[in-house]
Amino acid sequence: MLARKDEQGNLYGIRDLMSDFSRNYKPWENFNRGLYLAGVEVFADSVAPAGWNKWTVPAYEYLKVEAEGPDTFDRMVEYLKDHKIELAGAVFDYSCLKTGRNYMYFPVEKI
Questions:
Q1: pTM as predicted
Q2: φ, ψ for residue 106 (rounded to 5)?
Q3: Cα angle for residues 87, 63, 35 (degrees, 5° grid)
Q4: DSSP E strands, the chain
Q5: What's the pLDDT at 1?
Q6: Pair 61, 111: CB distance under 8 Å
Q7: Which DSSP string corresponds to 72-94?
């Protein structure tokens, strides 16, 4: 299996990745148009099976926030604007299977 697992054999979690249409992991056009890939974390050397896609996201420094409702994204965009922080890439989601909590990752600096 390609998916990475923890010591107990459980998936690390579900990742919802986003990218602009150029596939450069830039923020979506007007935050409402872009590419989307739901999946799991895999090992770096994994090869996607025929008909599947593997996205390799560049390393970023992120601001992580728990998704507490449908307005979480808009509140974080406002926070970034108020603090003069620019997005360095597309936002993505992470669902922790152990805790049942959902998070949003806002890339603020490419590493």
A1: 0.84
A2: -110, 105
A3: 50
A4: 14-19, 35-40, 60-66, 92-95, 102-110
A5: 62
A6: yes
A7: HHHHHHHHHHHTT---SS--EEE
Q: How far apart are CA 79 and CA 97, in angstroms?
A: 28
Domain residue extents for the chain: 14-110
Write the pLDDT tens digit of every residue in 15-73.
888 888 988 888 888 878 888 888 888 888 888 889 988 888 889 999 999 999 999 99
Q: What does residue 60 show for φ and ψ, rounded to 5 degrees?
A: -135, 160
Tokens standing for 86?
A: 């620019």
Please say whether the beta carbons of 46 and 54 come within 8 A. yes
Q: Which helix (H) or strand (E) element contains residue 4?
A: none
Q: Is the dihedral of CA 49, 55, 58, 61 positive or negative?
A: negative
φ, ψ of residue 103 to 5 degrees: the values are -130, 155
